[in-house]
Amino acid sequence: MAFRVLVIGGYGNFGSLICNHLVMMPDIELVISGRDPRKLAEKVAALQTLGGRFCESWCVDIMQDGAGSELGELAIDLLIHTAGPFQGQSYAVARHCIEAGVNYCDLADCRAFVAGIATLDAQAREAGVSVLSGCSSVPTLSAAIIDQHRQRFLRIDSIEHGISSAAKMPGLSTVRGVLANAGRPIRQLRNGKVHDVYGWMGLALRRMPGMGTRLVANVDVPGLDVFA
């Protein structure tokens, strides 16, 4: 039996990349969702050309009341929420998934959003579903790298991690999320103490193998809590 996956924001920057991979997997039934019917239809057509098979679409504002009951009718196994920015966003999508008995994960890079979703833990357990937040570069990939290599060291005194994104970012939500921290205080653990630093300050040069030199700066991400 096929595994049904619904991608919220399926025609956006990251959602589109995820859909392009999922449509090629024979055991996946892909459903894409968004609020714009034109963009949705265009993405469905592009995916059909790419994967050679039809995928379903659901045009909806998933944040609205009542979406949970509609979601339940789609018989979805996993919902992937890519529709950021997550700064200031509610947990409506995760709540709809719990109501509908659907497993949930998101690509949130907002520190407060990822930390706060723990308030839904008891409800998710009672419903028998998984609710996973922050399934993106940070903290998921960064934490996986640390877990893989930490046994090589007797102890770890400090961790410095950063992301050097491609200059080509077509998604407006991506840009909004990246710039949301500009000038705002960020709690950062240094030398065993929590200090306030400020978003997009602390500019520094880092040399990255195979990429040359890149500029990095302070950004508030969930990994700052995971590694604290």
From TrEMBL:
SUPFAM superfamilies: NAD(P)-binding Rossmann-fold domains
Gene3D superfamilies: NAD(P)-binding Rossmann-like Domain (3.40.50.720)
InterPro entries: NAD(P)-bd_dom_sf, Sacchrp_dh_NADP-bd
Pfam family membership, one: Sacchrp_dh_NADP
Protein name (record): Saccharopine dehydrogenase NADP binding domain-containing protein
Chain ranges of the Saccharopine dehydrogenase NADP binding domain: 5-131
